């Protein structure tokens, strides 16, 4: 057990390191290439930011697969066509995303490209072969049914991740959480039950985690670069490939034998049913946002692909949450649903799992109802926390409050001189040289 874990950890670190190191040069290239679109009405950021972060993420994907192909316990995965199928579909969707980030691509053209990328993976064997239905058993699919279902799952997952990419660090963090949960599930199926068909999904999840972790430091608020469609569609396709692999390739009857009974197999297969219909357990929040956006835009007589400011992260900002707080809340709900489903499948005491999820959901609701609450550190601990949690820093951050306190202090003759910065600007916002001239004129 220790050797595979070390090899997965090495693959994760290499993927993350390559993605992280490539992001800096890619940012410079994006600026030089002019891949910095103007601010749109629905955007949250206030200044043009380069895109094309997907170039670095694709480099990390290639590096991770290359390293894994030379490791003892992981090289067997490359005896199948699934890694090749993933790389082919990822290359197509990445090229489409790069073109969209630089010149813009029509929504229907992007949808067609997504379907072609999914079809390429299907042609190379990455497809759903059967459907495990609770209470019915295993239902075999015809080639046409498997192809249509696989293409639909890939397209839904890609667009779900693309839709949620609206705040700094949101998409990469949520997909990383989902990939971590999916890795735990697939790893348990492979090494826990000895089902080798789950090996490709395990590798895909590790590589996906590395891509997101390597890009996340550059994408946290305030973001220095965006992943763009070249990145969001890429990680969505990798996530979908893992779901298709573990759903369509793992024989439920074999799992029934390995798990020791129908009830145990049903518990183990719970996270497989839902990713097959909608990848709910791994990207529940993006899929919910996708469905709500389609219903909202259709109800308003707009195209389902028309952009707006009605996404979940936009609504969190509207009710008063800060940028970082909105991202953390989305992280919380993603982790709760993804890891809750994995815990439910791994533990027979399901009632306790459900009660724990309900309790954590209540905590999440409390966080949603306190959008303007900001924790304050005690004075003795102010040096150990970031500046935004210090009382003095908070007073300076509020311009209106700081100006009122400064006016009161000046009226009482207790105001201390504030050194001027560039062009006479001070930390409070006044321009001291103009204030001094005004005072000199009033004394005359």
Task: Produce a short descriptive summary.
With 444 residues, the chain is mainly α.
Topology summary:
Layout: H1 2-33, H2 54-68, H3 82-102, H4 107-123, E1 130-133, E2 137-140, H5 143-164, H6 170-192, H7 199-219, H8 228-248, H9 252-259, H10 262-277, H11 280-299, H12 312-318, H13 323-346, H14 350-369, H15 391-397, H16 399-411, H17 432-443
Antiparallel strand pairs: 1-2
Task: Outline the structure in words.
The longest helix has 32 residues, at 2-33. The model is unreliable at 274-279, 393-402 and 408-444 (pLDDT under 50). The chain has a two-stranded antiparallel sheet. The chain has 444 residues and is mostly helical. It has 17 helices and 2 strands. It has helices at 2-33, 54-68, 82-102, 107-123, 143-164, 170-192, 199-219, 228-248, 252-259, 262-277, 280-299, 312-318, 323-346, 350-369, 391-397, 399-411, 432-443; strands spanning 130-133, 137-140.
Q: Count all strands and give the number.
A: 2
The largest pleated sheet is described as: 2 strands, antiparallel
Sheet with most strands: strand arrangement = 1-2
The amount of beta strand, in percent, is under 5%
Average pLDDT: 75
Taking all Cα atoms into account, the compactness measure Rg is 25 Å
- The class by helix and strand makeup works out as mainly alpha
> SSE string, helix = H, strand = E?
HHHHEEHHHHHHHHHHHHH
Cα shape: globular
Helix amount, in percent?
55-70%
Number of H/I helices:
17
Uncertain segments are: 274-279, 393-402, 408-444
Distance between the termini: 85 Å
């Amino acid at each position: 057990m220790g050797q595979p874990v070390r090899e997965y950890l090495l693959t994760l670190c290499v993927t993350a390191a390559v993605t992280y190191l490539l992001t800096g040069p890619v940012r410079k290239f994006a600026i030089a290439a002019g891949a910095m679109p103007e601010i749109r009405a629905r955007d949250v950021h206030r200044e043009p930011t380069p895109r094309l972060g997907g170039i670095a993420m694709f480099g990390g994907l290639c590096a991770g697969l290359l390293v894994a192909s030379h490791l003892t316990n992981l090289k067997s995965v490359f005896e199948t066509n699934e890694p090749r199928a993933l790389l082919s579909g990822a290359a197509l969707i990445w090229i489409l995303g790069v073109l969209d980030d630089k010149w813009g691509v029509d929504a229907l053209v992007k949808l067609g490209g997504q379907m072609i990328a999914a079809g390429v993976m299907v042609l190379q064997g990455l497809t759903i072969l059967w459907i495990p239905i609770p209470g019915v058993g295993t239902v075999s699919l015809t080639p046409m049914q498997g192809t249509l279902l696989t293409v639909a799952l890939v397209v839904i997952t890609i667009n779900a991740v693309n839709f949620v990419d609206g705040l700094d660090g949101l998409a990469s963090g949520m997909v990383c959480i989902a990939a971590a949960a999916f890795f735990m599930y697939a790893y348990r199926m492979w090494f826990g039950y000895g089902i080798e068909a789950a090996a490709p999904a395990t590798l895909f999840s590790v590589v996906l985690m590395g891509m997101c972790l390597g890009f996340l430091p550059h994408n946290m608020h305030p973001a220095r670069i965006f992943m763009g469609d070249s990145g969001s569609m890429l990680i969505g396709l990798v996530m979908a490939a893992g779901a298709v692999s573990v759903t369509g390739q793992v024989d439920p009857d074999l799992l029934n034998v390995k798990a020791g009974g129908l009830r145990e197999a049903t518990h183990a297969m719970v996270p497989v049913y839902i990713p097959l219909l909608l990848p709910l357990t791994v990207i529940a929040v993006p899929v919910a946002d996708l469905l709500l956006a389609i219903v909202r835009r259709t109800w308003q007589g707009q195209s389902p692909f028309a952009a707006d400011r009605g996404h979940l992260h936009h609504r969190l900002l509207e009710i008063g949450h800060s940028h970082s707080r909105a991202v953390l809340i989305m992280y919380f709900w993603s982790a709760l649903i993804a890891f809750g489903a994995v815990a439910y499948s791994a533990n027979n005491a399901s009632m306790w799992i459900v009660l724990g999820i309900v309790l954590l959901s209540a905590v999440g609701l409390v966080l949603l109802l306190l959008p303007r609450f900001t924790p304050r550190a005690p004075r003795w601990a102010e040096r150990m926390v970031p500046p935004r949690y210090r009382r003095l820093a908070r007073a300076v951050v509020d311009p209106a409050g700081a100006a009122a306190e400064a006016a009161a202090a000046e009226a009482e003759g207790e105001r201390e001189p504030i050194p001027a910065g560039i062009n006479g600007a001070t930390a409070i916002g006044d321009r001291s040289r103009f204030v001094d001239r005004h005072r000199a004129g009033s004394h005359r």
